[in-house]
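input
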Amino acid sequence: MYFRLMTLFIIILTGFLFYYQGRCLYQEKHYQKEIAEKNNIITTLNEDLLATTKNIKKMKDQQQIITATDKKYTEELAHAKAHIERLRFALINGDKRLRLNARCDLSTAPPATEMDDATAPRLSNTVEWNYFSLREHIATATIQIAGLQDYINNVCLAK
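output
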């Protein structure tokens, strides 16, 4: 009888051991599957982080290029406007004169009574002012267009 009880106990104990081992194997496979899934998620997140970091670096580089371009052309524009203002004030002070190539049609010009009374031809103040305004607008447009072309070449078309 003792032998039977011992055999029964060994069989039950072996059954529990097999059950426990099977349960452990099932949990191990389950946890390995979860670990693999988590590793895939971590890999995906690391790839996304790397791509985002590269994008941020690219954006910072582009921002530096844009800032340098903006500074360069803003300084050029300020220099051009200052030069035009210096010319304008030199004209007002009489240090410089505005010369235009012009031709008078003799058939419509009134005859001068005496040559000694004739004064040098001169543009009106409004025309001179408009000339400098146009020159300033042309300089502004030229520098803005150059800046936009530089922006397109260095930022938009840069890879």
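quick obs: Residues 70 and 137 are 18 Å apart (CA to CA).
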